[in-house]
Design goal:
heterodimer, A: alpha+beta, Ubiquitin-like (UB roll), 5-stranded mixed sheet, 5 strands, B: alpha+beta, Aldehyde Ferredoxin Oxidoreductase,  A, domain 1, Aldehyde Ferredoxin Oxidoreductase Protein, subunit A, domain 2, 29 helices, 42% helix, 13% strand
Chain lengths: 65, 713
């Protein structure tokens, strides 16, 4: 089980960020996702796996600078 | 403690007015050539037109200088203002000072938005703005004592040279046992001996019991400061509460402040964690999207970039509250405690380092090919202490390093120094040389534009390649984002009034990553709206981070997520509740449009401000060298084939680069056309008479400048 935006989500071995976004059916074009304290950018969503019990934050990044 | 003397040479007693709805309606004028001081009223028309902050600064500066005034003329002024909302301790990000002057780098107005307590304390002491002109014959300190209602000019002797010690000493000297009541503005020897000097604005960290500072970095304001003989400005004020601004509707103010403040407390830990790691989260994110400048903006990523990322600074930053203004819940001004420099006058001694922020990490790290966080922290420390802008230092040293690697300069020019990318010892030595005003560091400290001229005329370097790789526009060094793949951000930099700084329009993510603005018209609209709205923060004495760096959870589902509509309404409510001037979000943009266009015409007054001055070096637009092209060949080849429908079969890299360059430069020209039209400017980039009339800035001297430039309708 992992936690995404304060909601519990089923976890499976090898689950990537792309898998997660597909599972929660959120169409927003997230550029950045945080797994615990690690920031992962969109180019790495397909290959970055999420560990069990992780807390995942979907960063609605529109700005910076 | 050094043996120093401060002797009062002139005192002005004044009456502090009752602050009303965020305004005193008076400003302080100081001419340090003859120690002349005066308090002058602000009339209603000026207040309605220019709002405050940067608007007041520009108005006061416009009145001080002629079209031929140089940065080092006594007439040039340094103007500092807060803004009607500035100093509110319950609304996040409400403690900014805005500084303007005629820049030594651009010869035009420069503005900088900086934290620290000075601006709010200046206002609470009775002044909506401060204008300093003239030149002193010796080291001078100006002390504004808002408690005793006195302004003093003091002759100074024996004060420390660097801002690190000077800030601490003057805080202690003037505090009368209450160091939190003091804010100091100072520069340093680097500001004196280069053209890229910054100003340090202090705030007092009660937990760590030390004066800390933020920087008004861009455009050499610190250099003007030291050229005037100013050693420091000091302001003293007492307690600050939500009542101090005497807001028009305190109940509404408290409501909206609580909403925004609580939202940040709830969401920042789930988003960028700025209260813990500042802006350092951006390093790896930019690197992942090929946007982190490395090796003088050649490339946007590097395998070693994570060494400079938030995971490292999370460990280096000293945990605790780090708000540069009271009550700010973003609190992103982090620092490194007990840092021990390996070089310079503090070698082997423990110091506290304010920073680094993202720009410093990228400028003094990756862009120099340096991926050692400790070197970045040391460069950060010395730049601040010497009064040097870390962005200009980073971009200027990166240019010199690339010139060295390309063989345009060699060790006969650098004083025997190896300037290869990644040479940490050389980077640090250059900064020390800037402070001493000697060696090759002194040459780099003149900025990229002057380096290009010197290298060509004295060292025989090729001016064409330097024009392409020298990352300056309007004379100002680029801040630290790659723009090659974002046409909108090329406009964000190239069309920025003061030069390529990201605080007008940061559109890279919206444009390149999210593709929210696919057409020229979309980009032009963004390059109208974003600079206008961001300008508003500097009119009011605010930080922009609470607006769109931490956003509501449902923001992504709104019609225009990039604008963060919910926060726009909160800001309109905030403005209305303090000033009593009923305002909608559109009204905020309209206020900014007035000042923005006035600044464009100010550029024109100084001999700039037309299309020709909005040009970019090609490195900001596309690949300059074959190495750059080939490193991202698939991207460029695909763009030529699919977007521009070019048959690249059989063409070598040089041919493809030439075609790509022509096409991309044409796109930038088209973008300029679209933006100028959207802004109500002529095709030459000048506001039309109709535009200035619509905005209410059709003053006779404005119309005269337009006429002189052939604009009559």
């Amino acid at each position: 089980m992992i936690k995404v935006a304060d909601q519990a989500i089923d976890w499976h071995e090898g689950m990537t960020i792309s898998d997660l976004l597909a599972a929660i059916n959120d169409p927003h074009p997230y550029a950045v996702v945080r797994i615990n304290q690690t920031y992962v950018s969109r180019p790495h969503f397909d290959k970055t796996t999420i560990p069990d019990d992780a807390e995942v934050y979907l960063i609605p990044m529109v700005a910076g600078g | 403690m050094p043996d120093f003397k401060l002797e009062v040479t002139k005192t002005l007693d004044y009456k502090r007015p009752e602050l009303a709805k965020g305004y005193n309606d008076q400003t302080l004028f100081v001419n340090i050539s003859n120690a002349d001081m005066a308090v002058k009223p602000v009339d209603q028309k000026t207040k309605e037109t220019f709002v405050g902050g940067k608007g007041y600064d520009l108005w006061l500066l416009w009145d001080a200088v002629q079209g031929d005034t140089r940065w080092d003329d006594p007439q040039n002024a340094i103007c500092i203002a807060c803004g009607p909302l500035g100093g509110t301790p319950i609304y996040p990000g409400s403690g900014k000072s805005i500084v303007t002057t005629v820049s030594p780098l651009t010869a035009a107005p420069i503005d900088s938005n900086v934290g620290g307590y000075f601006g709010p304390y200046l206002k609470f002491s009775g002044f909506d703005a401060l204008r300093i002109q003239g030149k002193a014959s010796g080291d001078t300190v100006i002390f504004i004592d808002g408690i005793n209602q006195q302004v003093q000019i003091l002759d100074a002797a024996g004060l420390p040279e660097n801002a690190y010690e000077l800030s601490a000493l003057l805080t202690d000297h003037f505090a009368d046992g209450k160091p939190r009541s003091i804010s100091v503005v100072s520069a340093g020897p680097g500001a004196q001996n280069t053209l890229i000097g910054c100003l340090n604005f202090t705030w007092y960290d009660a937990k760590r019991k030390r004066a800390r500072y933020k920087q008004a970095g861009r455009g050499g304001i610190g250099t003007v400061f030291t050229d005037k003989g100013l050693k420091a400005l000091v302001v003293r004020w007492d307690t600050v509460t939500a009542d101090t601004n005497n807001p028009a509707d305190k109940t509404r103010l408290k409501e909206v402040a609580k909403l925004h403040s609580r939202e940040i407390v709830a969401l920042d830990p789930k988003q960028n964690e700025m209260a813990r790691i500042g802006t350092t989260h951006l390093v790896t994110i930019m690197n992942d999207h090929d946007l982190l400048p490395t090796h003088n903006f050649r490339y946007g990523s590097h395998a070693e970039a994570p060494n400079l990322g938030q995971e490292v600074y999370r460990r280096l930053f000293d945990p605790g509250f780090d708000g540069c203004w009271m009550g700010c819940t973003v609190a992103c001004s982090h620092g490194v405690k007990d840092f021990v420099p390996l070089t310079g006058p503090y070698r082997g001694k423990k110091v506290f380092v304010d920073g680094p922020e993202y720009e410093t990490v990228a400028g003094c790290g990756s862009n120099l090919g340096i991926f050692d966080p400790h070197t970045v922290v040391e460069l950060n420390f010395y730049c601040d202490a010497y009064g040097l802008d870390t962005i200009s230092v980073g971009t200027a040293v990166a240019f010199a390093m690339e010139c060295y690697e390309l063989g345009l300069i060699d060790q006969t020019h650098t004083g025997g120094m190896d300037l290869s990318f990644g040479n940490r010892a050389s980077a640090l030595e250059l900064v020390h040389q800037m402070a001493r005003g000697e060696g090759f560091g002194q040459i780099i400290g003149q900025g990229v534009r002057r380096m290009k001229q010197k290298f060509a005329s004295e060292f025989g370097a090729d001016p064409a390649i330097m024009a392409d790789i020298g990352m300056e526009a309007k004379g100002l060094e680029f801040s630290e984002y790659m723009t090659k793949e974002s046409l909108a951000q090329q406009g964000g930099y190239g069309l920025a009034l003061k030069g390529p700084q990201h605080d007008e329009a940061w559109l890279i993510f919206l444009d390149m990553v999210h593709n929210f603005m696919p057409t020229f018209e979309d980009k032009a609209e963004a390059l109208h709206w974003f600079p206008m709205f961001r300008t508003w923060f500097s009119l009011c004495g605010l930080c922009k981070l609470p607006w769109n760096d931490i956003v509501p959870e449902d923001n992504k589902d709104t019609a225009e997520p990039a604008k963060v509509i919910k926060h726009l309404q909160w800001y309109a409510d905030y403005f209305s509740s303090v000033t009593g001037r009923a305002s909608s979000p559109d009204d905020l943009v309209a206020m900014s449009e007035v000042v923005y266009n006035f600044q464009r015409i100010f550029n024109l007054k100084m001999g700039f401000g037309t299309r020709a001055h909005d040009k970019l070096p090609y490195r900001a637009v596309g690949p300059v060298t074959e190495l750059e092209y080939e490193s991202r060949a698939e991207r460029y080849d695909t763009q030529l084939r699919e977007k521009f429908k070019v048959d690249i079969e059989g063409k070598d890299t040089a041919e493809k680069m030439a075609i790509l360059r022509r096409l991309r430069e044409e796109q930038y020209e088209k973008l300029q056309d679209a933006v100028y039209e959207r802004r109500g400017w002529t095709p030459d980039g000048i506001p039309t008479v109709a535009t200035v009339k619509r905005l209410g800035i059709d003053f006779e001297d404005v119309l005269e400048i337009l006429r002189e430039n052939g604009v009559t309708a």
